[in-house]
Design a protein that fits this description.
Layout: E1 4-6, E2 17-18, E3 24-25, E4 30-31, E5 35-41, E6 47-58, E7 61-66, E8 76-80, E9 85-98, E10 101-108
Parallel strand pairs: 1-9
Antiparallel strand pairs: 2-3, 4-6, 5-6, 5-8, 6-7, 7-10, 8-9, 9-10
């Protein structure tokens, strides 16, 4: 399988924007399951790859669960078989959930919205303000069948 490797060493100048609840987020997170392969280095220095699925994604990275413990001080490579792309990233969050299960937050060197093959909501989108489908109107007049 041929993949496009994105080498993103230059500075991106990404800025954080404040959200309504006061937290600082550069972009919306989307809860979606995407198959990915993480290439990383374990704590004992061994190179490994592990196929997993995303929990959330954004143009700036993803949250995944791994069975292997990844070294947070070493760069990693994330591959998406759907888009046939790979992107360099770093581990910004690591939490041991249980024995041999780790929650891993990955940050891309630069934002890559096309890596996921989905469209993200605009930066100023507020899910609470989304338009809801109108509910069907009930007729007050009796219906006759015949």
């Amino acid at each position: 399988m041929s993949m496009t490797i994105l080498n993103l060493r230059e500075s991106c100048g990404a800025k954080k924007t404040a959200t309504r609840n006061g937290s600082s987020r550069r972009s919306q997170r989307v809860v979606i399951t995407c198959p990915v392969t993480l290439f990383g280095q374990s704590m004992d220095g061994r190179i490994f790859s592990e196929e997993t699925n995303t929990q959330t994604v954004s143009p700036h990275g993803a949250l995944v669960f791994l069975k292997k413990d990844v070294n947070t001080q070493k760069p990693a490579l994330l591959g998406n078989p759907k888009t046939k792309m790979e992107v360099q990233c770093r581990v910004v969050h690591r939490k041991e959930i249980e024995k041999d299960k780790y929650e891993i937050g990955l940050e891309f060197s630069c934002p890559v919205p096309k890596f996921w093959g989905i469209n993200f909501p605009p930066e100023d989108w507020n899910p609470a303000e989304r338009k809801m489908a109108p509910s069907p109107r009930r007729s007050n007049s009796p219906t006759t069948k015949g």
